[in-house]
C-alpha cells in the first residue's frame, strides 16, 4: 500500500505556498515507513502523472478556497475532493485536477485522495506567509499524521 504525501503551492505567493510549507514541516519532524513518499509538488505539472499513478493513496496538502475564514483548516476526502476544484484558488489547482482526471481515464488513479487544506489570508508576491497562516502549520502537520494513521501508517517523531 504505497502512499504519497504531496505538498502543493507556490511559495512565491505568500499563503498560497502553505501546502509546501506544511509538507516541509512534516518531513522535518516525522519519519515514515518506506512505502510512504513525501514530495514537494510545487505547482504540480503534468510531469507528476507517473509519480501520482505509482501510489495507491494520495494526501495532497494545499491552500484551499472553501468560503471559510482565512486560516480555517479542512480535510476533504473522496467525493468531496472534486468540489474543491470548482473554486480555483491558483493555476496549479487546475493542474492537479487535470492530473487526477487523466489518471482516472487511464484507470491509474489512486484508490483514495485526501486534501488537507488551509484557507489562505494573503496571496500577494512574497516568500513570507501571513502570521495567522504560519501559526496553523503545526496543526496541518498533525492532520497529515492523522490521515496517515487513518490509512494504517504510523509516523514516528524525529529525535
From TrEMBL:
Q: Which InterPro entries match?
A: Pept_HybD-like_dom_sf, Peptidase_A31
What UniProt keywords apply to this chain's record, in alphabetical order? Aspartyl protease, Hydrolase, Protease
**Pfam families xref list:** HycI (PF01750)
Keyword Protease set for record: yes
Q: Does the keyword Membrane apply?
A: no
- UniProt family annotation: Belongs to the peptidase A31 family.
Protein name as annotated: HyaD/HybD family hydrogenase maturation endopeptidase
Q: Native species of this protein?
A: Azospirillum isscasi
Lineage, opening ranks: Bacteria, Pseudomonadati, Pseudomonadota, Alphaproteobacteria, Rhodospirillales
